Amino acid sequence: MDKAAIMISSLDAVVRNVLAEYDFSPDAKITLANVSENTTYRVDDPRSGRSAALRVSRPEYHSKDEVESELTWMDALRGAGIVRPPLAIAARDGSRVKSVVVNGAQPRHVAVFEWLPGSAPSTEGDLVPSFRVLGALAAKMHLHGLAWKPPATFRRYSCDYDAALGSKALWGRWQDGLGIGSSEQSLLSRLDAEIKRRLDEYGQSRDRFGLAHNDLRLANLLHDGDNFYVIDFDDCGFAWFMYDFATAVSFIEDDPLVGEWMTSWLDGYLSQRPLTTSDFDIIPTLIMYRRLLLLGWVGSHYDYAQEARDLGVGYTTGTCRLAEDYLAGRYLR
Question: Which positions ≥6 away from 248 have C-beta within 8 Å?
Fold first, then answer.
């Protein structure tokens, strides 16, 4: 049995135990839905007909207070009518975040959400309209974050250089990515240094860096008739606002249509909030910033996340090609 199977087998029993603390019947069925940054199960209760998503965080990622703060911002966005995130379901004791221990490791935090209708927009065909929607939603959330007064207990991380590529490397060090030899190390080190230089120059003024979703891609947008729902706020925190476009093209940064999608995303964004020339110019840098972050993610998640396995060493090879184009001034120019 490989590491992923062992982890899931250990987690299944814990999930069944914690589910008993919620208002679901003993007949409720749990089905593994996704393993990525978190492990997510679908819960189907035949007695009530209710379905839910049960999310178990990975160890040492967010604290319990940070997960509570995630839910607080989702509540505020829903209450203000900005976007429609899923509603967090409380346990019988009224708490919305539970902590569990798996195999004696650090506590992992559990949150349960209503299962929303609809499906993610297709990634086939013309994606321009969908990227325009993503851009408008991102701008609305940025404006809300700028105006919102969070409670004193609000705690979310900053997705700055140190957290993504520096000493913290919350998603894994890119240097530990798959297939990193001496030539890849040399090239990507130059890329890293140039990214840092440009981000330092761009700065973190309030109009450029603030509360954002930080993973607003098509996979986290559900479409049901005339309704759009935004899901997976697990990475929400403080970041460069234009980083939300970089996340929208996660894993497909080398697609020849990225420039067209960027134009569409910006059209949607500008319909809600103005931008400066500097904001436009920093986008390629933030895409490369995200790409290096994901290179570390693939390396650190390869043992248990199928998406990381599917990307494999090829993602490193593609990153090096993009790095050469970016450093030569050819990327998105």
Answer: 131, 134, 216, 217, 218, 261, 265
Q: What are phi and psi of 160, to 5 degrees?
A: -95, -175
Q: What is the DSSP string of 89-148?
A: EP-TTS-S-EEE-STT-S-EEEEEEE---SBPPPSSS--HHHHHHHHHHHHHHHHHHHH-
The structure's pTM equals 0.94
Distances (CA, A) of 80 to 83, 141, 239, 269, 271: 8, 10, 22, 19, 19
What's the rounded Cα separation, in Å, for the pair 113 and 95? 13
50 beta partners: 45
Q: Are 204 and 160 in contact (CB under 8 A)?
A: yes
pLDDT tens, position by position, 147-168: 999 999 999 999 999 999 999 9
Q: How many CB atoms lie within 10 A of CB 329?
A: 9
**Bridge partners, residue 81, by sequence:** none
List the beta bridge partners of residue 205. none
In angstroms, the Cα distances linking 222 to 7, 80, 125, 215, 300 are 29, 19, 17, 14, 28
Alpha-carbon Rg of the chain, whole angstroms?
20
68's tokens: 């509570």
pLDDT digits (tens, 9 = 90+) for 208-236: 999 999 999 999 999 998 888 999 999 99
The total of other beta-carbon atoms located within 10 Å of residue 158's CB is: 14
Cα dihedral value 243, 248, 254, 256, nearest 10: -120
